């Protein structure tokens, strides 16, 4: 049975391809409300003068999208942020004047709903960021924003990740802009990067489709993979490792690259594949040298030019406060291509469900 739209037989392949269109839809709907703050105010969110911190809760891919979003409040707005695995939220201390952003594609994930139960009275405002605005999560939150991804069938989230990041970024930029929490040069740079995202995602698809297929053939027999990043790039490394685990059932670990020397470097042997999300941090060169000195094979995504099979490839450097979002595209493509070579069902990975309604 052919997937309803697109050229692939699986939904996931089509959902990956749809990401530039989804990004454009989100930006057309939300970007006009950023600079005048109408997006923030229209959601009924409180003044940032009454918010001391932002806490994001979520699971799986939604948690990673939340980490990217938290980076905007922190890097651009100087607001203290934390991101919580929803199933651990009950063990946290909650302070007043907190903006809680509950991230869930389905809006039905039990761990996220239980995290809301853990909130004390007068904790602050809860904003639900979901792909289902009539979900239980949406009903139980003070404010709701639809991430506009459209239905996602593949169990492993792809286009909802991009949609959640961009929706959250628009909301964050709107609040930071209207309450004057960022300097205009940095805000301007982020706004330009945001507008360039749909084309950036399309360029990443074009540039990496072939090379990722080639890389998957090359690494089909690898037993494990490391994913490294620093700063704003780290969340994409984490999402790449999660996609690989979900789809290929191979071990994949994501680490802040600076932690390599404190343990994971012991995993690196001749031929160990190490994926590096390059957000332009010059210290990554040192991290990479540590890997190559042990015979590890570095595959680098981001700013630099990479040569695969003699073909030079390039992803433009993206330095916005949410990090190099476009790098998630080759990581998704690689995970899918590897899974296909291993004869996995990329739409329905074993042991996993699209929406987990038990906690
Ligand atoms: C399940 C899915 C993951 C997803 C997570 C959170 O575990 O298999 O792909 O990221 O739930 O789902 P949510 O609907 O809350 O975003």
From TrEMBL:
A Gene Ontology molecular function term of the record: glutamine-fructose-6-phosphate transaminase (isomerizing) activity
Top-level class of the enzyme under EC nomenclature: transferase
The enzyme's E.C. designation: 2.6.1.16
Tagged with keyword Repeat: yes
Domain SIS: 44-184, 215-349
Source species, domain of life: Bacteria
Keyword Heme in record: no
Catalytic reactions of this protein: D-fructose 6-phosphate + L-glutamine = D-glucosamine 6-phosphate + L-glutamate
The entry's keywords: Aminotransferase, Glutamine amidotransferase, Repeat, Transferase
The name this protein goes by in its record: Glutamine--fructose-6-phosphate aminotransferase [isomerizing]
UniProt organism field: Microbacterium phycohabitans
Organism classification: Bacteria, Bacillati, Actinomycetota, Actinomycetes, Micrococcales
Range within the parent protein: 244 to 602 of 602
């Amino acid at each position: 049975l052919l997937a309803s739209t697109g050229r692939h037989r699986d939904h996931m392949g089509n959902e990956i391809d749809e990401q530039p269109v989804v990004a454009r839809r989100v930006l057309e709907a939300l970007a006009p409300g950023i600079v005048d703050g109408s997006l923030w105010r229209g959601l009924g969110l409180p003044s940032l003068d009454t918010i001391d911190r932002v806490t994001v809760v979520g699971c799986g891919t939604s948690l990673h999208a939340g980490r990217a979003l938290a980076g905007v409040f922190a890097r651009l707005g100087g607001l203290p942020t934390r991101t919580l695995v929803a199933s651990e939220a009950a063990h946290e201390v909650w302070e007043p004047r907190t903006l809680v952003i509950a991230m869930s594609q389905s809006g039905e994930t039990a761990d996220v709903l239980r995290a809301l139960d853990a909130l004390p009275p007068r904790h602050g405002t809860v904003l639900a960021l979901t792909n289902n605005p009539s979900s239980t999560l949406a009903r139980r939150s003070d404010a709701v924003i639809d991430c506009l991804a459209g239905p996602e069938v593949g169990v492993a989230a792809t286009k909802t990740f991009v949609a959640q990041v961009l929706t959250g970024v628009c909301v964050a930029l709107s609040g930071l802009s209207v309450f004057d929490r960022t300097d205009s040069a940095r805000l301007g740079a982020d706004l330009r990067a945001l507008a360039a995202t749909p084309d950036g995602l399309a360029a990443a698809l074009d540039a990496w489709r072939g090379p990722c297929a080639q890389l998957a053939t090359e690494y089909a027999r690898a037993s494990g993979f490391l994913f490294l990043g620093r700063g704003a790039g780290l969340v994409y490394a984490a999402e790449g490792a999660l996609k690989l685990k979900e789809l290929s059932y191979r071990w994949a670990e994501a680490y802040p690259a600076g932690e390599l020397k404190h343990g994971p470097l012991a995993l690196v042997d001749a031929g160990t594949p190490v994926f590096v999300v390059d957000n332009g941090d010059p210290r990554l060169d040192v991290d990479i040298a540590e890997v190559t000195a042990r015979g590890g094979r570095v595959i680098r995504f981001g700013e630099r030019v990479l040569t695969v099979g003699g073909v030079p490839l390039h992803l433009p450097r993206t330095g916005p406060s949410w990090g190099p979002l476009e790098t998630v595209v080759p990581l998704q493509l690689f995970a899918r291509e590897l899974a296909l070579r291993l004869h996995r069902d990329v739409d329905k990975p074993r042991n996993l469900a699209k929406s987990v309604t038990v906690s």
